[in-house]
Specification:
Blueprint: H1 6-23, H2 25-28, H3 61-96, H4 98-113
Helix pairs in contact: 1-3, 3-4
């Protein structure tokens, strides 16, 4: 741990905090994310009871954001795994089949020729 930069440790801390918040969401939030328990307080400003305020339908913003972390992590991890599997498969094909390597390289050259701003 001696050679790890402090910025990497800070990033690891916040990532771990994000994962823990997503895992323990039912324990750290006041209500289910879809519950409209605060209709009389709709559009309320942040307070000690509702850290991020209340939306127009009486739902707690903090609860919805913490539960949203679950969806974000699921999408992020599944995309990373899926692209790794697809990249591995394409790399294996290009490594074993010489003629496929040429075709794949021309396809990649064509994709990289298109500006990303489009």
């Amino acid at each position: 741990m001696k050679n790890i930069p402090i910025s990497a440790m800070i990033g690891l801390f916040f990532t771990a905090l994000y994962f823990l918040a997503a895992i323990f969401a039912p324990l750290i939030t006041p209500a289910p994310p879809e519950a409209q328990l605060y209709l009389t307080q709709s559009l309320a400003f942040p307070s000690p009871e509702h850290w991020f305020g209340i939306d127009s339908l009486g739902r707690d913003f903090y609860t919805r954001i913490v539960y949203g972390a679950r969806v974000s992590l699921t999408v992020g991890i599944s995309v990373a795994v899926l692209t790794s599997v697809i990249g591995l498969f394409i790399g294996l094909i290009a490594g074993y089949l010489r003629w496929a390597d040429g075709i794949l390289m021309r396809v990649m050259d064509g994709l990289m020729a298109i500006p990303s701003i489009l």
